[in-house]
């Protein structure tokens, strides 16, 4: 099973909180996704099915990876449960301007705490998901106006258990192209990462993260894994560590 955070988006480039806003990949993000696909193909990977969110930056990353691997014909399932964490009223705001207004410590809590969400989005805001046809199947009480990583986990883990896990049981090779926080939620579950440790985990854009699971769905730790993860990133390890640091420093 391979996890890929979408390539850099236009709002990643502008250092804005994105959440459920449906922004495009940047040119760099397109190149990152293609590079991820090339690395997977060169390493001999193949997939039977792909999963992604309903946001275009993840969908396009999925397409570009599969195109590089000549696997665009495999089934792709899109699910809102794999969407990025909803950043509430912070969506669209410049991260450094938000630090200047609210303070570095408060913004760090909103970005990286496990169970403290940002201020909620007003329902009269044009970005409220309840106004978007793709979320028409959600009841009003299910439609988020803000999320913490904990509440993101509350939707990602059931989707893993009910939908993705049966495909793993069936022996299928899977690609999951999603987002920083939905993937943090998934690896927290897979690696049983404590609440206190997950807050410091950063996942770089466009970099394939390979997981091998045993018969009990426990990750088999790779010798090149970067803690607290058991999976391994494909590519130049020093460059990957620099990308991880770049994510961490977005509000410095």
UniProtKB/TrEMBL annotation:
> Which PROSITE patterns does the protein's record reference?
PG_MUTASE
Q: Does the keyword Kinase belong to this entry?
A: no
Write down the InterPro entries for this protein, in alphabetical order. Answer: His_Pase_superF_clade-1 (IPR013078), His_PPase_superfam (IPR029033), PG/BPGM_mutase_AS (IPR001345), Phosphogly_mut1 (IPR005952)
Keywords, alphabetical: Glycolysis, Isomerase
Q: Which Pfam families match?
A: His_Phos_1
EC number(s) of the enzyme? 5.4.2.11
What family is it from?
A: Belongs to the phosphoglycerate mutase family. BPG-dependent PGAM subfamily.
PANTHER family xref list:
PHOSPHOGLYCERATE MUTASE
Identify this protein by name.
Answer: Phosphoglycerate mutase
């Amino acid at each position: 099973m391979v996890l890929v955070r979408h390539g850099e988006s236009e709002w990643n480039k502008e250092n804005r909180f994105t959440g459920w806003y449906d922004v495009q990949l940047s040119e760099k993000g397109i190149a990152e996704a293609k590079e991820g696909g090339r690395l997977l193909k060169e390493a001999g990977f193949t997939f039977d099915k792909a999963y992604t969110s309903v946001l275009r930056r993840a969908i396009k990353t999925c397409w570009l990876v599969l195109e590089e691997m000549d696997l665009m014909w495999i089934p792709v399932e899109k699910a809102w449960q794999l969407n990025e964490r909803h950043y509430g009223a912070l969506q669209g705001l410049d991260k450094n301007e938000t630090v200047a207004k609210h303070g570095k410590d408060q913004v760090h809590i909103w970005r990286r705490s496990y169970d403290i969400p940002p201020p909620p989005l007003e329902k009269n805001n044009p970005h409220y998901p309840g106004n978007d046809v793709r979320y028409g199947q959600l009841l009003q009480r299910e439609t988020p106006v803000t999320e913490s990583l904990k509440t993101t986990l509350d939707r990602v883990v059931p989707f893993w258990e009910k939908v993705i896990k049966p495909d793993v049981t069936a022996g299928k090779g899977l690609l999951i192209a999603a987002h920083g926080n939905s993937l943090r939620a998934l690896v927290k579950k897979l690696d049983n990462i404590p609440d206190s440790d997950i807050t410091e985990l950063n996942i770089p854009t466009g970099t394939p993260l390979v997981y091998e699971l045993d018969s009990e769905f426990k990750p088999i730790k790779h010798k090149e894994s970067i803690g607290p993860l058991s999976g391994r990133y494909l590519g130049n390890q020093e460059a990957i560590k620099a990308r991880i640091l770049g994510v961490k420093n977005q509000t410095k």
